[in-house]
Amino acid sequence: MKRIYLILFLLALTLFSALSTGFYLLYRLVYALALILVSSYIWTWISSWGIEARVERRTSRAAKGENIEARITVRNTSFIPKSWLEVQEMTDMPGHLEGMAIGLPSRGFRSWKVSTPCKRRGIYTLGPLRVTSGDLFGLFRRERYFGDVHTLIVYPQIINLHHFSIPAADLPGEGSAVHRSFSITPSASTVKDYTYGESLRRIHWPSTARMGKLMIKEFDQGPSSDIWLFLDLHWDVQAEQEEESTDDYGATIAASIARKYLDAELSVGFVAHGDDRYVLPPETGPAQMARIMEVLAKGKAQGKVPLEEALAQEEALYSRNSSVVIITPSYREEWIFVLKELMRRRIKVLVILVEPSSFGGRDSNLHLSGNLARNGIPSYVVSRGDDLSAVLSHMYRGPQMAEVFPGHPGRLL
After folding, report:
1. What's the CATH code, domain 1-155?
2. Is 336:372 a contact under the CB 8 Å cutoff?
3. pTM for the model
4. 3-state secondary structure (DSSP) of residue 55
5. Which CATH code is given to the segment(s) 224-391?
6. For 72-113, how does the pLDDT look when each residue is reduced to its tens digit (9 = 90+)?
């Protein structure tokens, strides 16, 4: 638009000079500038006339790391060719491709695929489609919009946590007694001979091959009846580097743990204090998983309540049969005192520390692992770039000090 102001300034200056001097060449220059302005304006309107555009998209839901594919089609229904059009889909989604410049022949069309990577979980808007026309001199631009605004939900990734478990033996007041279960749970205890009528899903194939007969897995009932996931979304402790953030890692961990235990038919609840207070009471089944995923996609790390206050506010949610998994990048020590109070009530507590300095944060929370260990609170540490399935298969005990039970993957020492 700066060019139009320059042309108008030159036109006014030339007209003033022509009227002052009466020099005929200046009058010709005035006519030429006026002709350029009028023809450019008309050309811009003609270029936007007779245009149709649409976007075809197969899904409105995806997971972080996936690509959302769409097909954009722009058609010229008029007999006048379109020499320059800029096509861009309006969206607040990070990583979305910029507009594309095209030309269209008389009654022709262009169609192409657009693939957008889902780099961050969240709820985004897609559309409408903006088609911009202009003149050859870049003096005028006209925008037209096609289609409606659609919502895209990007869920966190889900990682298979085969060896992750919530320990019971290390917690105060708990014994190591194990009860057998006829249901499939996350904790395989032993194997036994197959009995007619038992589910084939429980067959342990390595033992079957070794023994030469069908062997099936027996499962523990698990450490508790209810599992609560507490995701820390306090804004002041978050960190981000190269499109990877502590809150996205936390959401992935929460989703993965929820899937593991809900698949085992255990009750899982969820709590987070972010841009809003999110509380999902413990329930079982696919519907609960869907609710947790919706909240994880929606929740933003904009919480104003620090972890120690949020934990204290939600103490009444937990019963003696609860296990609470806290996922946090916090480097503050105050919240550990709240966990000690939960443990005094015989509530099982597990902490997953997301290390903020690995995401470019100013502080580290590795010093908290020692404090947690001294208070009998098991913990895991996750850093940027870690294989989550691997680091969540053993507790953090400092450098080169993580162990698991021999022969029992996921059973923590």
Report:
1. 2.60.40.3880
2. yes
3. 0.78
4. strand
5. 3.40.50.410
6. 999 999 999 999 999 999 999 987 877 899 999 999 999 999
